[in-house]
Amino acid sequence: MTGPLSDVPPASTEFLATVAARELEGKQRVFAGVGLPTLAVDLAVRTLNPDLELVYESGVCGARPEAMAEGIADSVLVSGAAAVVPMPVLFGYVLQRGHVDVGFLGAAQVDRYGSLNTSFIGSWRDGARPDVRLPGAGGAVEVMANAGEVVVVLRRHDPGALPDRLDFCTSPSPVAARAADPRAVPRGFGLRTLITPKAVLRRRDRFGELEVASVHPGVSLEEVRASTGWDVAVSPDVVETRRPRVEDVRLLREEIDIVRLYLR
Amino acid sequence: MSVDTSAPGVVTDLASAVAAHVEDGMTVAFEGFGHLIPFAAGHEVIRQGRRDLTFCRMTPDLLADQMVAAGCVRRLVSAFFASGSAGSLYEVRRRVEDADPAPLEVEEYSHYGMVCRYQAGAARLPFFPLRSYAGSDLPELNPRIRTVTDPYGGPDIHVVPALNPDVTIVHAQRADRHGNVQMWGILGAQQEAAYAADRVIVTVEEIVDDEVVRADPNRTVLPAHAVDAVVACPRGAHPSYAQGCYDRDNAFYREWTPISRDPALLQAWLREWVYEVPDRTAYVEKVGAERWRSVAVDERLSGRVDYGRRYAPQEAAQ
User: Could you tell me the keywords of this UniProt record (chain A) (predicted)?
Assistant: First the structure.
């Protein structure tokens, strides 16, 4: 993909969605969530991977929406889709069976091995009431266990969002699963790519730690380190994150999210 | 509509169906994954003042916020505690975070965990295995998520217990007067949740002639043997949607966030839109033509399939 580069800021939705879309190059089947992943998936189909099959948690497979979906159960995902399957088929046969290559997830907290917290901030053990009731597991724990790999986009990069220890482990990495039962590690690689407003972090090994793979333009490696809640590893070949092209930003603004639902 | 609904059977009105089947303290599932959410039935349960319900739903949605705020719910059995992309369910959050104005019991699974619970319940199995929870804190949070030894030599596997609601309530596009229910679009876990229950109430956009159902038997998700009450309830899923009938009222979902955030506004909303509205017909009128136009959908018909029929002997001989 060539063309002039845009100067949208690295914390912008346009920047993050474009970086996320690149993760879908060469992939077959993506489990797409709502929000920023909707933009990333649409952009990937238009620029990098026209044959990408979109699978939604609502059971829609091979969606070809005529308008931007406002949720994973939007009627536009159903009309014209290749298939709509009920929940036991979606979770059991599509996901747990292993048909999904990449899953997009969000999180409130991510740890160094890529386990995710989407449940509680604050204490929850022994009947304590949590400070914040987050949405909970939904299907994220299933995606983490069973998708070939997982991509997470975080809108914050600070020690609260990337803590040394999660307040609650909703969706465990293979590292956490192995610690619980070495024989029961599910099939997925777990989190492979974490995209934040400051950097892209990757895990190279299924049982490895996140390391800084690229730093966004205008952000220093020191700032990334200081903003991470553990002593984060840095890849020996760390680079600057490639900016979106002007065309990527144009597509997002003028063809994908024309009603500015997700782009502010 | 030419259907004779006067014959005794499962066709009834919503107030009678709820009065006959939903009692205080029951476990009630309201299913529909972002689609065909049985809002009209939920509002009728609120109007009839049911209390201490165990409310089961994969993704609680606004319906949970409304029924919790109305004081119907003692315990929430669920996997997700937000309103999709539209934001938090603040009534649920107030109760969980601050016991304000009262605590709410929560029994928490994941989406597939809930599906597996319904599958076990539907087939009258004691539990159902799944690969989701190794290493998660969910089994510590909810001790009903357990592990069993694989009797065939594999590793231990997590299981969830069967969920058998006293009543499951769903909404569908159509049914015949016997209770054969057809739906299309996103089907969620309605079939599993219905078979898991002792009793099943189905509200539908329309009651159709028997022949409409029999012309396309594969579209029947709930055969009449699984259904106790069928209620004609056009637009009974609003503000969610019914594929091919009307679209999701996304504007209402966005409006809910500030309502939900303010307990006084929420109670006022319940008064205006539930308590002081006698039934769904009145609700539909109150919503108004302009709003219905905003969720109107254009036609996109399916193709037709040929089920075939065997020639009668005299036809075959020709």
Answer: Transferase
